[in-house]
Amino acid sequence: MWITTFSVLLATICSEKLGKLSALQEIGTFFIYCFMFVIGAPASIAEIVKKSPLLLLFAMLIVAFNMLFTFGIGSLLHMDRKMLIIASNANIGGPTTAASMAIAKDWNELIGPSLLVGCFGYAIGNYLGILVGTALS
Fold first, then answer.
1. What is the model's pTM?
2. Mean pLDDT over the full length of the chain
3. Which among 25, 44, 58, 137 is least buried, having the fewest CB atoms inside 10 angstroms?
4. What angle do CA 72, 111, 35 make, to 5 degrees?
5. CA gap 129, 27 in Å, rounded
6. What are phi and psi for residue 136, nearest 5 degrees?
7. Which residues contact 117 (CB under 8 A, 6 or more apart)?
8. Cα separation of 115 and 86, whole Å?
């Protein structure tokens, strides 16, 4: 919670100074690669299926509901499909996976929004998660 609070405050208060730093894209790309490596290195689908099949099923239901909701409402509102895909990815996987997908698909105009939406979701989700956890305990 402290890291989230300090990060949001720092980015809000010092946005102009932070925006002038050089090599931000290279540093950001390096940390995205680090994140992907750390998350992907120990991953084993076989172990997940063997040790926690109900957790896998629950995660699949959450992803399916998110995609149905996002694409259903987005289709009704005639929103751009690329934007809906990136928004759904940011919701499910966070800013790093959404930005990686935007880069891989060469949707350069969606890299910044994917990072912003994902980070905004983290910032709100941290506080709401603590609030819900406290209320249910």
1. 0.72
2. 87
3. 137
4. 100
5. 29
6. -85, -15
7. 86, 87, 90, 91, 95, 98
8. 10
